[in-house]
Structure formats: C-alpha cells, structure tokens
C-alpha cells in the first residue's frame, strides 16, 4: 500500500491519479508498490528502519513541458505535493527521494532532448532527462568542437546537477555547473511557463546571456521549490588544443598553507582547471601502518612527528595536480610559472612533469586516459570509492585556507571517533576544490542495507557534523533530504532571515504548497503550521 | 546452433515461438545489447585503466575467477536473477526505474544476457 500524500484521502488520490493518466497517458503513471519503490533513495540512510524512509506516493513521467504544466495544475486541484527529479542519480545526496513522504515524483527522464548544441557560440540547451553521457555522445556523433564539463558520475543530468550546485573539473567558469548556465525554462507552481535570460524575449537566444534585465530569479530553482525546470542552457568550453597536468609535491604538513595560497591565485588568475589535492604520506585513508599507529596514540601526532615519518618513508606530505587547458605554448608556460612561484616559497618542493595531450583525441586514447572527467569525458570511475552498500556525503563549505582544512580534520575526526565510525579524516585529508571559490571538506559515511544500527549511528554523526560545522561558521553545500532542515537552519543570521524570506516567497507563488515541500529546508505554510 | 540457442531462449522467456522467427529473436538480443550498452556497460564493461568498471572489478573480487567478471561473458544468469538485480539493486548498484529500463527493455536485456546460456 503506497504512502498517501499528507491529508489526501485514498479516494481523492485515486481521482488525481486518473486525472494524471488522462493528461499524460496511463503508461506513464506509476502507482504500484513495486514501481513506486524504485523511487526510494538507493543509498538510503534509513535502511533497517523502514518506517522512517522517505517514500513517494506515486510517480508520473511527462514527456513535454505542456505535460508538466498539466501535472502541476492537477496537483493544485487535488493538493498533491510534487517532487521533481531529472535523472534521479543524486546518490549520496538523496537520489530520487522526496523531502516529504507521500510526495508524487515528477520523473523527467523522458524529457531527454538535446535541443541545441551551438559550436559557434559554445552553448548547449538540454532537457532535464538528458544525461552527461547523452550530451557527450550527441556532441561526438556530430563531431562538434565543444567540451562538456562533467561531474564524476556520467549518468547524471546537467540540469539536475546544476540545480543541486553540482560541479566538475575544468576551468572555473565551467565546472561550477549552475554558474555556467545561460538561462532556463521552468513551470511555475500555478502551471505557467517562465523563461529567464534572453529566453524571456520572444525570439531571444537562451544560450546567450543569463541576466537579461531585472532581478535574476534563476537561483530560486536551485535546491529550492519554486518551480520545475524543464530546460536549461549551458556555456560549453571550446575544445582546447592541448591539456597538460603537472604534479607538485611538498615535504611538510604545514607546507599546505603556502601551497594553498599559490594554487588559489592560479585558480583566480584563470590559469588552471580543478586542482586536485592529495597526500603521498596520508595515502587513501591513511593506510600506512606506522602512520596509523602514530595517529592512534592519545592526542594524536605532532606535525614534527608526522614530517619525520614522511621523510623516513621518502614521501611528500601533500601533492596537488595542476591542470592546464589551451594552446600548447601557454599550458607549458603556465606550468613553468606555477613551478617558479611555488619554488620561491616552499623549500624542498618537487615537481613531477606530465605530458601534453593534444586534441582531438582518439576514442582509444580517451578510454585509457587516466582521469577522463578532466577532459570532459563522462564515466563512472568514481564508484570505486563507494563502500559496499553506498554512502552519505557530508560536504562542508570551508574557507580556502590550510587552517580551515586542519581545523576541519580535527572537528569532524572527533565525531567519527566518538561515534565509532573509524578513524575518519586524518591529518592529511585535503580539500575538494570542485567549486572554484570555496573548499569542500567531504566525508563519506558508510551505509548498510542490513545493519540498521550502523545507519542510525551514521545519521547521528551526520547531524553532529552539521552542528559542529555551524559552530565554526561553516555550512553544507548539498545534502540528502533527511538533513535539509537542520542544514538550512544553520544559516541562521538574523533569526533565519534567509529561510524566512524564502518561505514568504514560497507562500506567495505556491499558496497550495505543491512544489517539492521541504526541498532546501523551505516548507510551505501548511506544513510549517503542522510542524509548529 | 545459434538459431537453436535463440529458440531455447525464447521458450525460456515465455515467448510464443509458434509465431516468432529467428530474426525476431536476434532482434530482441540486439535490442538487449543496446540496453546493456546504454545502462550497464559504463560499470560492467572491459576495464581500460586501473580505476574504471567498478561492476566488473567488484565481481572479479567476488568470484576470483570462478565465474567471468564481465556480465556479457556469463552463461549462468537467469532472467529472474537479472530482473531482481536491476529492479532491486545490489551492494553499491542502485535499482533502475522503468523510465530508464522499461519492462520491454528488461525482456530484451534478459535475452541478451542469457543468449549464451547452455541448454
């Protein structure tokens, strides 16, 4: 028996389902238990405690913007809360799960048209059901000289990813995926269609200019619940002539501070793509036995002890891969510049040169390329880091400094240890740098399909991390629905004016509260009153 | 021989062979190959570098050579098992919705992944 939308009787729900069937075709309304179960979060933090799982009531899969409009109008008529997904692959951040049990999923996967790829003006316009694989294949099949910027999993949606502040790997003006959008189309809570940017002018070019005139409202559709986005335009990187990646290795743990400052500057000068930090001394998870022993001591290890161990092992404390795109002459010149600047500041720094890759590249060379997302080739390599039954990502936004990194290691590491979840972040955990102007400290919490106690501990640790981050002045950039409220409430300046402002907007444009209640921690009035 | 396998396959899938042809069976397998290429191969293909093809790698770890790590090389997958995994997920592999792999696609995928099963 499916979960009903809150306050909606079985009879009313069945009437609504019939209306949906009339509007989009019976084949595209999914209401059986087995079909609806496919919309659960596949990395479900409530495994083992099914009564807490966020469940959909049913799902509808429209094929056109007009069908989305019809769905929204029916939902208003019957007070059915909707929750829109693009490809539903937001694994680790909620998958296709709604924030409110009983929501009706609007599955946009069938809206999978690449509307335009323009290689003269370097943009693409796509529907939400288009995946990065789809867009990449479309471009390759036509031999177009543009690159996509893709996140790690290639089966996600450029639209869905951008609308959850997803990120990628090339230059900063492309790898902030929402930041690289050029305009969008959305169905509003009353069923009307809105276009932004130059798309707001009849005959205008959506891929041209995002701001148009007047307030920019596009951000309301990101992690928000002000409409259902049905297409978006994105700027694309013209295929560069060359790619080069060189590795920088610094000997001491505290060398991270000047290293970060230099790399931040390279980033802000527009010289590099995503800088990939790592640690030869820490390895992946700090699996060196000597290091493990050192860290297990009460009080941990001092920097001097860590540096001595790294020196004995002949490994550096930190590494960063710098990526350069453009003409062959300039990528090599920029690498030389980076080496010169870092050498001036960090004694004992080493540089490992890479090789110049030239484009166009053969399919075989792409297949064996060591980090394909760096050259805009979507794939699924990232799943190598996913533990047995999936994970939750806790992703804190912290300032771009070594001090913040070191502090984060300490703050979140204590929670891991307190909750018995392993060692957690070690002194060599580096920053994730997908977002160009902030660091993300990302920690993956393991989940189990069978061990409900572990999942409960993970949820508690996740909540402790949110509070601990807030105490440092940090917040999260993205999270599974179960934690959205707590995260939004941490952005609490002036008595949570950010949330309250969004609630006022919500009540104004969605009086029946039907679009994704709870998304982004924003609840419509009727649900706020229930919670009060 | 191949024709025989297809016919056995059709029987196994509950397809009425009286009105089915070899060409139809072949077409179903080809359709299943396309479904596999769209939805499965990104994790279950041939590894090209040390970190890709997580599905193939995890199955290699699980079976240690006792069974082929690549699903396309298996000859013991049953239609029921294929459906259970695709719709139920396993380990880190999520389940697939019907807007991704439709019931019709599922029939074709089963035909493809069982095409080499022994009698």
Strand content of chain A: 15-25%
Number of separate strands of chain B: 0
Percent helix range of chain B: 40-55%
CATH fold category name of chain B: Cytochrome Bc1 Complex, Chain D, domain 2
Helix content of chain A: 25-40%
Look at the structure and give the mean pLDDT of chain A: 95
Describe the structure.
The complex is a heterodimer of chains A (532) and B (119). Chain A has 532 residues and is α+β, with helices and mostly antiparallel strands. Chain A has helices at 10-24, 33-36, 65-78, 132-141, 158-162, 172-175, 256-268, 289-296, 303-313, 328-345, 363-368, 402-418, 452-471, 484-490, 493-509, 525-531, and strands at 29-30, 56-60, 82-85, 103-107, 114-118, 123-126, 146-147, 181-187, 193-195, 228-235, 237-238, 242-250, 276-278, 318-326, 350-352, 356-358, 391-398, 439-446, 475-476. In chain A, the strands form 5 sheets. Chain A has a 5-stranded antiparallel β-sheet with strand order 5-6-10-8-9. In chain A, strands 12, 13, 14, 15 and 16 form a 5-stranded antiparallel β-sheet that branches. Chain A has a 4-stranded mixed β-sheet with strand order 1-2-4-3. The two termini of chain A are 29 Å apart. The model of chain A has no long low-confidence stretch (mean pLDDT 95). Chain B has a single domain, classed as Orthogonal Bundle (Cytochrome Bc1 Complex, Chain D, domain 2). Chain B contains 6 helices and no strands. Chain A binds chain B through residues 30, 34-35, 37-39, 42-43, 59, 61, 88-89, 91, 95-96, 107, 109-110, 129, 133, 154-155, 367-370, 379-381, 383-384, 386-390, and chain B through 42-43, 48-49, 51-52, 54, 57, 87, 89, 91-92, 94-100.
């Amino acid at each position: 028996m499916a979960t009903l939308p809150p306050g909606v009787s079985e009879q009313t729900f069945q009437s609504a389902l019939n209306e949906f069937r009339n509007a989009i075709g019976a084949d595209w309304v999914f209401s059986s238990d087995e079909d609806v179960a496919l919309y659960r979060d596949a990395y479900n933090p409530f495994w083992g405690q099914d009564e807490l799982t966020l469940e959909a009531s049913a799902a509808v899969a429209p094929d056109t913007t007009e069908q989305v409009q019809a769905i929204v109008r029916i939902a208003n008529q019957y007070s059915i809360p909707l929750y829109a997904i693009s490809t539903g692959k937001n694994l680790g951040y909620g998958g296709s799960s709604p924030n409110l049990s009983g929501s009706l999923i609007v599955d946009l996967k069938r809206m999978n048209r690449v509307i335009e790829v323009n290689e003269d003006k370097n943009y693409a316009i796509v529907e939400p059901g288009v995946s990065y694989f789809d867009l990449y294949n479309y471009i390759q099949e036509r031999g177009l000289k543009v690159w996509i910027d893709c996140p790690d999993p290639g089966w996600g949606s450029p639209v869905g990813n951008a609308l959850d502040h997803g990120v990628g790997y090339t230059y900063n003006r492309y790898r902030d995926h929402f930041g690289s959008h050029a305009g969008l189309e959305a169905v509003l809570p009353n069923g009307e269609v809105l276009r932004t940017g130059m798309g707001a002018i009849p005959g205008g070019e959506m891929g041209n200019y995002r701001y148009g005139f007047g307030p920019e409202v596009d951000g309301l559709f990101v992690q928000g619940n002000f409409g259902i986005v049905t297409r978006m335009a994105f700027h694309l990187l013209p295929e560069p002539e060359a790619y080069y990646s060189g590795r920088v290795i610094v000997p001491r743990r505290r060398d991270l501070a000047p290293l970060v400052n230099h790399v931040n500057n390279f980033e802000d000068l527009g010289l590099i793509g995503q800088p990939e930090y790592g640690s030869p001394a820490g390895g992946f998870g700090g699996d060196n036995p000597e290091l493990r022993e050192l860290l297990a001591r009460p009080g941990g290890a001092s920097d001097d002890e860590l540096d001595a161990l790294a020196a004995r092992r002949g490994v550096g404390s930190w590494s960063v891969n710098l990526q350069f795109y453009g003409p062959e002459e300039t990528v090599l010149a920029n690498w030389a510049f980076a080496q010169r600047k870092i050498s001036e500041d960090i004694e004992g720094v080493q540089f490992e040169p890479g090789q110049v890759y030239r484009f166009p590249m053969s399919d075989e060379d792409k297949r064996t390329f060591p980090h394909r997302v760096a050259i805009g080739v979507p794939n699924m390599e990232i799943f190598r880091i996913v533990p047995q039954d999936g994970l939750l990502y806790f992703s804190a936004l912290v300032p771009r400094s070594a001090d913040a990194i070191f502090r984060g290691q300490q703050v979140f590491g204590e929670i891991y240890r307190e909750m018995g979840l392993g060692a957690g972040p070690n002194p060599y955990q580096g920053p994730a740098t997908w977002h160009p102007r902030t660091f993300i400290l990302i920690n993956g919490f393991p989940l189990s399909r069978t061990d409900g106690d572990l999942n409960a501990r993970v949820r508690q640790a996740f909540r402790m991390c949110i509070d601990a981050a807030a105490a440092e002045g940090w917040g999260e950039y993205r999270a599974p629905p179960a934690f959205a409220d707590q995260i939004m409430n941490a952005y609490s300046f002036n008595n949570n004016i950010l949330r309250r402002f969004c609630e006022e907007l919500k009540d104004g444009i969605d009086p029946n509260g039907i679009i994704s209640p709870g998304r982004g921690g924003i609840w419509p009035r009727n649900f706020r009153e229930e919670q009060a | 021989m191949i024709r025989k396998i297809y016919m056995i396959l059709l029987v196994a899938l509950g397809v009425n062979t009286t009105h089915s042809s070899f060409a139809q069976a072949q077409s179903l397998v080809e359709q299943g190959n396309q479904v596999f290429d769209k939805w499965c191969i990104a994790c279950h293909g041939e590894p090209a570098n040390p970190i890709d093809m997580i599905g193939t790698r995890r199955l290699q770890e699980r079976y240690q050579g006792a069974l082929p790590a690549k699903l396309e090389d298996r000859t013991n997958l049953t239609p029921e098992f294929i459906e259970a995994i695709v719709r139920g997920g396993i380990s880190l592999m999520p389940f697939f919705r019907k807007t991704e792999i439709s019931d019709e696609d599922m029939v074709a995928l089963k035909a493809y992944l069982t095409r080499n099963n022994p009698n």
